[in-house]
Structures are given as structure tokens and as C-alpha cells.
Amino acid sequence: MDSTPPAPRGLLRVLTCGSVDDGKSTLIGRMLHDAQQIMDDTFATLAKDSRKHGTTGDDTDLALLVDGLEAEREQGITIDVAYRFFTTPARSFILIDSPGHEQHTRNMATGASNSDLAIILVDARKGLLTQTRRHGAICSLLGIRHVVLAVNKFDLVGFDQAVFDRIVADWTGFAAELGFVSMQPIPVSARFGDNVTRLSANTPWYRGPSLLEHLERVQVEDAAGTLPFRFPVQWVNRPGQDFRGYTGTIASGRIAVGDAVVVAASGRQSRVARILGPDGDLPAAVHGQAITICLADELDIARGDMLAPVADRPEVADQFAAQLLWMDETAMLPGRQYLARLGHLWTTASVTAIKHRLDVTDLSQQPGRQLALNEIGLCNLSLASRAAFDPYAENRATGSLVLVDRDSHRTVAAGMIAFGLRRAANIAPEAVLVNKAARAALNQQKPAVLWFTGLSGSGKSTIAKLVEQALHRQGRHTYLLDGDNLRHGLNRDLGFTDADRVENIRRVGEVARLFVDAGMIVLCSFISPFRAERRMVRELVGPGEFIEIFVDTPLDECMRRDPKGLYEKARAGRIPNFTGLTSPYEPPEQPELRLLTADRSPDECAREVLDHWAD
Asked: Suppose 100 and one of 20, 152, 419, 548 were both cysteines; which one would form an S-S bond, judging by CB atoms 3.0 to 4.6 Å apart?
């Protein structure tokens, strides 16, 4: 083996991942200990904590060095991502210890997004598990190109080479399509230090480097410095009339005073007049630097815009395909609106199609209509506004996004953009000669959506029909959209799964918007069980044009009425996904009108709607 000391290299960000209890925290602790990176007082505290929380008998439990949370120590698992910095004569490192438990996959993805190399641990007794394969797939999707397969707890299988060879063969067959540049398998015992910082006499048949030696020598590409200049604007800095600057951190590339730049989304061009750093003017700046750029011209630039070279621009589109890692217990439903963040741009987004789901056990592509927790899928997304981006494979900083639930504000997905859907750029709204205001004036009425929502049997269709009849007698131009009627035509291809219900209301909302644009009053009677979709319809029309009417009838009363016999069939198991019984209903939180129907007739409720409309 080459004994030449390695030449000093740059910072290496190393992620450890794998399944639960594979020994990730112990491996990091062992590496720091054997590389003499633990101070004496820290080690004394660690020995004391080991007697309270440790799982290694009389030995010091090195996992506690990175399992810093009390809950982690009590449960013996990693919950949060832990970061440890250390340096050797050859290299500096940031070690990122990620959780192995399936419910904390989001934390693992966070660590992977900023890592250069991944150490994927495998328990030698168990071999590759589903979570191990999932982590391998996520590492690949998030752009990690260098992997160490650390076959841990090798002391528990007697340092048997046959076990190592079998696990390496399984991994090599699985990872062949993941695009890793290097894959180094190493047999280790994190508890006792075999092959962690130096080669072990227990594995004389192993001819490769120790783990630390490999980390010191591996060559990783610093791609961000060679990529085109990308500057997502975080803040428009204008303290007075005489200064306007655009503040942010350079995502990639280099910029110098005098360089020509373009605002990617608008196409407006200018030149860099000044570059300001923390200590004043700079002639140039490179990726990773936080700066303020002043331009020679006053352009319309806002937070979320991106500056780029005129001759090497990012893609700009409002639709693209992306790999999504779903990280929420509530499944992703196509058509539902989420908040999307790309750089510093926030906009609404929805998944328009799931092209396929990734089976992490064999990397095969499977059909799917939704994504569940920890599933990965290639999806088409549509944004409410155009955004600048690069494919993730070309630029990790500008090709990533996150999706956020609009109600809970939880981060529900991480996304890696594959390519823009260019057909969207060929479609633009067609100007018309007669607009909504002109049609409404001809009809002599204010167009609106009267949206009746409630459980099956609540009486919403009956009330909606009475309201339309009364409006018609007043000479109003109306149209009634009813759930059952549309399912015989426009929506006849939809069932009653959550995904189908979302698509059902999305289509209804678009039809209702067209009726409002035609200057009409459209009455919509739909269970519409989810708040997200009702809000989506509200946002399709103008302020004051959506009136949510909650037909509030208790479930027991709806079941007593059961005008179509649906509850009886649902309780008998003949109707799956029935709202109120086996599928949820989310009542409106602030409807414009709430109708309590249990002790009132449909005529009384209809008059209340008409009175509200007259006001």
C-alpha cells in the first residue's frame, strides 16, 4: 500500500447514513477518538455519560459524542442531524450524522443536500435493508457522487470475508444504476476501531484503505466554482434615494465589476457597477460569498429574482419535471396546491402528474396516483409564476426546491428539478375584446361563486336548487353545478379516492371560474371535503366573488336522513372512502355563511342565503 503522505486537500463534507442501529454515531465517535480529536475533559464527560446512557457495558459509548439530545440518548437512536468538524494534516472534515429511522428521512435528506461523500453503513449481520437502499437512492438523487459502503459490526460475524463479499456484491448490483463516481467498500468495527483510522489485523484479506485514509485521499469536484454565475436575490437594499443594491449569496460561479448580467425571468440586461462585501468594495466575488451587487441601470428586480450571465442563462418556466421525496405523513395528491420555494422565490405550486414512483428495493419505476411518506417519484409540477432554475444534475444550488403545506406550514417534500416543460413557454393568455366586467354589466349583476359544502345528506343540493330558482325569478343569470351531474360527464372518469376528490374539485373550480368570467352567478353543490381545494377555487376568482356556504348538519342527522341510502351501503362496506365515515371531512373555518339545518327547513336556509346575497 502506498505510504506517501497525502497532499493537503480542501474541506470534505461527509454524511453518514443507513438503517436504524447500524452504528453511525459510534463510527463518528470512534473516528474522532482514534484521530485524537476528543479533548480530555470531553472524554471524561463522555465516560461519565456512558455509565448513565451507554449501551456498551463498561466501555465508553462513543455514540454519545454525537447523540447530543437527551431523547436520543434515552432511546439509543439518532433523531436530529448532528454536525462535527475536525481536521487532520491532510484534510478538514465536516461529519454529518443523520437519523436512520424511517420517520426521520427528511433529516437525512437535509444532510445529504450539502454533502460531498456519503458513508452508508450496513450491519454485517443483516445485510442491505430497505432503508439502506432508500438512503442510497436519496444520496444519488441529491447529487452525492462518492460513497463508502461501511460494513459495520464485523466483529459480530467473526470478520468473515464471505459475509463481506456477499454484502458488497448485493450493494454493487443495486447501486450500478445510481451514477456514483466512486464506491469504496470497507469492513469495519466501529466499536473496536477495526479499519476506521488504521488497518486491522483481524482482516488480513482486506487490501483497501482504512476509512480515514480513504476520506483523506478521495478526490471530489468543487463544481460550484466552475459553473455559470447564479445570484438569487435575497433582499433589495435601498436605504435611501441614492443607493439601490441587490443582496444575496452567490450560488455558483464568479462575478466581477463590469460584467454583463441579465434578470433571468424578465430578460432585462445591465452591467455590474459595484460589488460590496462586508468590508467594502470588491473587484470580484465567487460562489459562497455574501455580497451586494449594484447595477448600472435601474431594473425591476425583487426578492426571488435571479441574476445570471447574458450568454449563459438558466431555464425560465412555470412548469417542470422534478424528482420529489415526499416527507409528510399526509400523502401528496396531484392537483392540490402547496407553497414552493426555489431559492428565495415563494410561489404556489401543484403536481399535475406523477410520471412514476421509484421502488427503492430494486430501483424499478412503478405507476402511482399519489406519493406516501418517504416515497420518491418523478412528477410534473406547475407554478403560479415563472421561475429561473437549472437542472439539479447541473447545479444543486439552483435546481432544488421544497414544498410546504399551506395550512400546517410543514415542509412536505424536497425536489430535484430534472428539466423544464418547454411546451409551457409556447402558451400565453389570449387577449379578448369583451371582458368579465362587460359581460357582468350586460347581465346587470355581480358574478360570483356560491359554494355549498357539507356532508352527504346535509341538504346542500336541495338548498342550492331553491336559491337558484329564486335568483332566476329575480331575472338573474345563473347556473348550478352539482356533484352527481358532473360525475355523469366531465368527471365520469374519477372515483372517490382522496386523489380523485382533489382532481374533481380542481376541474369544477376551473369550470366555475369560466362561468364567473362569463358574468354569471354559479352555484356549486359539492361535498368538497378538503379545505385546500376550496381555497384553491376561492383563489381562482376575484376578491368577494367566492362565497363559501357551510351546510352544517351533524353526521347523525345526515345518517338518519340518508336520502340516497349511501350511508347504509358505506356501513355495510359496499362504498369505500365515504366522507364522514371512512374518509375525512374538513369543515370550513371561516365560511361567509353557516347554515344550521338540523331544526330548519330548506326554504328557511335558502332565504338566509338570499338575504346574505342581497347584502
From this structure: 20
Q: Are strands 448-453 and 521-525 parallel, antiparallel or unpaired?
A: parallel
- Return all residues near 242 (Cβ < 8 A) that are at least 6 apart: none
Mean pLDDT of the 24-42 span: 71
User: Cell 447500524, residue?
Assistant: 22
Identity at 536, one-letter amino acid code: M
Q: Report the candidate in 218, 232, 425, 230 with the shortest Cα–Cα distance to residue 316.
A: 425
Q: What angle do the packed helices 498-517 and 436-443 form, to 10 degrees?
A: 70
Given a contact cutoff of 8 angstroms between Cβ atoms, the answer to whether 263 and 306 are in contact is yes
DSSP 8-class letter at 296: S
pLDDT surpasses 50 at 71: no
Rounded-to-integer distance, Cα 250 and Cα 270, Å: 18
Burial letters for 124-155: b for 16+ Cβ neighbours within 10 Å, e otherwise? beeebbebbbbbbbbbbbbbbbbbbbbbbbbb
Strands (E), 48-176: 82-87, 92-97, 117-123, 146-152
Q: How many residues does the chain have?
A: 615
* Strand-pair partners of 339: 348, 404
Positive or negative, the CA dihedral 255, 256, 260, 265 is positive
Q: Note if 528 is an active site residue.
A: yes
Question: Which residue out of 19, 140, 252, 528 is catalytically annotated?
Answer: 528
Report whether 351 contacts 381 (CB < 8 A). Answer: yes
CA distance 333 to 584: 15
Q: 525 with 482: CB under 8 angstroms?
A: yes
Q: Give the pLDDT confidence score for residue 424 in this predicted structure.
A: 52
Q: Which pLDDT tens digit goes with each residue over 282-298?
A: 999 999 999 999 999 98
- What is the DSSP secondary structure assignment for residue 191, as one 8-state letter? T
The x, y and z cell numbers of residue 470, run together, are 329564486
Q: What is the pTM of this model?
A: 0.80
Task: Kindly report which listed range (218-227, 265-274, 301-310) carries the lowest average pLDDT score.
Answer: 218-227
Angle at 73 between CA 67 and CA 75, to 5 degrees: 120
- Give the relative orientation of helices 531-540 and 498-517 as an angle to the nearest 10 degrees: 20
Between strands 411-420 and 400-404, the pairing is: antiparallel
CA-based nearest residue to 14, from 66, 61, 55, 62: 66
* 2 has pLDDT over 60: no
